[in-house]
Amino acid sequence: MPAILKNARKYGYSSARVNAMKSRLLSQKKLQEISGKRDINEIISMLSDEDYRKDLEEFEGMKSKSEMVEFALSMNLARNLRKLVTLAKGDDIEILRSITGRWSMHNIRIAIEAKDRKKDFDSISKYMINVGRYGNLVIKEAMREDSVESMLHKLMINSPYKKMLQDASEAYAKTQNIFEALSAMDRRYYQNIAELSEKLDSEEHWSASKVIKMEIDMRNVLTAIRAKKAGIKLSGFSSLLIQNGNIPKNEIENIYNGSKDLSEMVLQLKFFDLGDSLAFYNNDESKRLLVFEVGIRRAMIKSAEKYTGHRILSFATILSYLYMKEAEVYLLRIIANGSEYGLDSKDMNMLIGWKTAE
């Protein structure tokens, strides 16, 4: 059977559904309009006219409007992630579950940080993405344990992420350092992502592999940016860089060593066009690295569209929506909590207003 007919049979329905879901994403113009609002009630009103109405109504009785938005954003993302998994077929189901599994890791990371600070589940519930193996109920139950180690051991039981959790547990037991535990878990997760991308690096899924590898690129570039700002030598963080991204590890290392400062390094990391992010950063008195993460996520949307635009009937179409939706929720969280980030309306509009793919 010709490949185009095979893909039409396998991805025709899911691609149509995903395109319908894409049509409900917020346009750049709408994001800019929302970012210009400083009153949380106005933000809620604008989101209620979009795909977030059902989720906002679920929490409309809450006293804190900002928490209401946080809960609604988490619920909306989880709802759409679950919908994506139902659209996948055959082997793609497990692939997509592996990718969306990072939200299980997201939930566990937040739980580890909260447990280390002696906080309970209620303090983090608004950030939970209730999808996958480690949703709200599982995390809440695990957090009843009396320590980080015992919580991780409980989560390990019959877990597909046992090695990842074991790495975190061993690192924490050895150092009692939360950063070391989370770093150990991250390294295992990104190694798994690298292995997954290699499996996908075939004629049918090469574009999906490119998109997945951008996760590794984002992690490596942000690690290099943080290290450069802190003045850390390459030997002090090289082990944290992950192999098998679109940007070779040795290329990042060479650029890092060959750059006299952060500005020069960012301009040489050309896979993500961060020129606008750098201009924002250089004019920002607070020197917030947030601007680079926002810039990378927006660049990822543009790249995902580039890699998948010529393959309408493919698994990569599902992936491109996944990254677009995640970036949208990420940006809306920043907008809703702009004051916490020290962002005024002008700053917010600059963040959202960069040239990006619609």
Judged by helices, strands and strand pairing, the structural class is mainly alpha
Round the Cα radius of gyration to an integer and report it: 20 Å
SS elements, strand count: 0
Specify the overall morphology.
globular
Estimate the helix proportion, in percent: 55-70%
Describe the structure.
This protein is mainly α. It has helices at residues 3-22, 28-35, 40-48, 53-58, 65-87, 91-100, 102-116, 136-142, 148-156, 162-175, 178-200, 206-230, 249-258, 262-268, 275-282, 290-308, 315-336, 345-352. Helix 2 (28-35) packs antiparallel against helix 18, helix 9 runs antiparallel to helix 10 and helix 16 runs antiparallel to helix 17.
Write the layout of secondary structure elements.
Elements (H helix, E strand, L loop, with lengths): L2 H20 L5 H8 L4 H9 L4 H6 L6 H23 L3 H10 L1 H15 L19 H7 L5 H9 L5 H14 L2 H23 L5 H25 L18 H10 L3 H7 L6 H8 L7 H19 L6 H22 L8 H8 L6
Helix pairs in contact: 1-17, 2-18, 5-6, 5-17, 7-11, 9-10, 10-11, 11-12, 12-16, 12-17, 15-16, 16-17
Quick description:
Helix content is 68%, strand content 0%. It has helices at 3-22, 28-35, 40-48, 53-58, 65-87, 91-100, 102-116, 136-142, 148-156, 162-175, 178-200, 206-230, 249-258, 262-268, 275-282, 290-308, 315-336, 345-352. Residues 1-5 and 354-358 have low confidence and may be disordered.
Supply the key terms:
358 residues, mainly alpha, 0% strand
